[in-house]
Amino acid sequence: MFDKSTWIRLPRNVLVGHGVLDQAAEAIEELHLRGQPLIVTSPTPYELAGERIEAQFSSWDEEPAVVVVEDASFDAIERVIQRARDVDPGFLIGLGGGKAIDIAKMASDDVGRGFVSVPTVASHDGIVSNRGSVPEEGTRHSVAAEPPLAVVADTEILANAPWELTTAGCADIISNYTAVMDWRLAYRLKNAPYSQYAAALSEMTAEMLVGNADSIRPSLEESSWIVVKALVSSGVAMSIAGSSRPASGAEHLFSHQLDQIAPGRASHGHQVGVGSIMTAYLHGGENGLWREIRNALASIDAPTTAAELDLEDEEVIEALTTAHEIRDRYTILGDGIDETAAREVARQTDVI
Ligand SMILES: NC(=O)C1=CN([C@@H]2O[C@H](COP(=O)(O)OP(=O)(O)OC[C@H]3O[C@@H](n4cnc5c(N)ncnc54)[C@H](OP(=O)(O)O)[C@@H]3O)[C@@H](O)[C@H]2O)C=CC1
Ligand SMILES: O=C(CO)COP(=O)(O)O
Ligand SMILES: [Zn+2]
Q1: What are the structural domains of the chain?
Q2: What are the tens digits of pLDDT across the range 91-116?
Q3: Which of 7, 239, 279, 330 would bridge with 178, disulfide CB 3.0–4.6 Å?
């Protein structure tokens, strides 16, 4: 068996636009995928788009099987894997937000079938990436998985999704600035594996999103288009790198730690956005990029303070001082930031 860890695996058909949901089966057929589809979804996306997807397979030999998951958990993945073993599908379709898509992604890996991502929210770059992430007992397990074979992102549906989910997706992209800074630091100081192409793509994606921030407005379909393209691009950067490094640095460690300290309080994207303000400050000090990041987040209505994340100041300090323990990934936090320094950075950046 060859070592596939260095292969670059990307989605082949990426459909982004108004009404493309109705082209899902065509995009799938074009990939020569055969057999019964297994749709993995959650309640709201199923209600919004389930019938339209199912109808497209009515002329196929076998109509789709459907499994609706309520929560993102290992139990839910196990249930989907069991269903997939019973159904023996040709491929899986993840229809929904990060919950349904991650579960479809991880189950498809387990049963050795491809999967197609049909996002109904643009909440983070997991909807197109080669990473799966499932919360369990207050922690989050981030694992390597296969990226989707195709992505079908209907901007009409995405534009009608709750605005906070779209701003979370934007913030996840804006955080690429600091992720790349951390990655370069780790490359220089620790000789961490580094890809110039992936870093440049990730940075450019954040720049383009910030450059288009004025066009990112609630219920404006163009906004969803800009955000999804950025999420796809970020996912591609991760696939080129073979890791989440281009899109996940200390700001993500901070967010993962918050998921343990204050589970369910704020979304992934919003947490990494605030983390990015503080880690940019640590990288650049007074005159750094942190103000630009904060202004970009504020301009798209994303949180920039602990209070806007519904967090106590002390929870932010605890997450900052313990974030380096989350995983073996060198960042600007080094082997840990002490409490006085954490308080200083959070105060200087107006996070607390
Ligand atoms: N792979 C990765 O790299 C990453 C993965 N994640 C994972 O992703 C998950 C979080 O993703 P997120 O997308 O926020 O969560 P969900 O999939 O839970 O979606 C968020 C909410 O939006 C609802 N919803 C979905 N689509 C629509 C729509 N079009 N209109 C109105 N409501 C809608 C869902 O309803 P309902 O529950 O009824 O279906 C849910 O209440 C977590 O499991 C997290 O661990 C997070 C970051 C990165
Ligand atoms: O959220 C991600 C990138 O935006 C994935 O990163 P992690 O590997 O830290 O879960
Ligand atoms: Zn992220």
Answers
A1: 4-159 (3.40.50.1970), 163-348 (1.20.1090.10)
A2: 999 999 999 999 999 999 999 999 99
A3: 279
